[in-house]
Design brief:
This protein is an all-alpha fold. The chain has a domain of 37 residues. Helices cover 59% and strands 0% of the residues. The chain is built from 2 helices and no strands. The longest helix has 33 residues. The chain is elongated. InterPro entries: SMIM26. This is Small integral membrane protein 26. Keywords: Membrane, Transmembrane, Transmembrane helix.
């Protein structure tokens, strides 16, 4: 690789790296602020347990066969 090609490659990769770094930092800041809710906007959520699943009225294999 010629020296002028190496310099242009180095500058291009530096720009790509800088863009990725600022994008990552911006995303972390944006989503970090989005997750922290103000104190007045708290909403009580119901405790929904997913341990038990209701049984279907008609077994699956009968639905498939008909």
């Amino acid at each position: 690789m010629r020296p002028d090609q190496a310099v242009s490659w180095y500058r291009r990769m530096s720009a790509v790296y800088a863009f990725g770094t600022w994008t990552l930092l911006g995303s972390l800041i944006f989503f970090g602020r989005k997750k922290s809710n103000p104190l007045g906007d708290e909403v009580e959520q119901k405790d929904v347990s997913t341990d038990e699943f209701p049984e279907p009225s008609v077994p699956y294999f009968l639905k498939v066969m008909n």
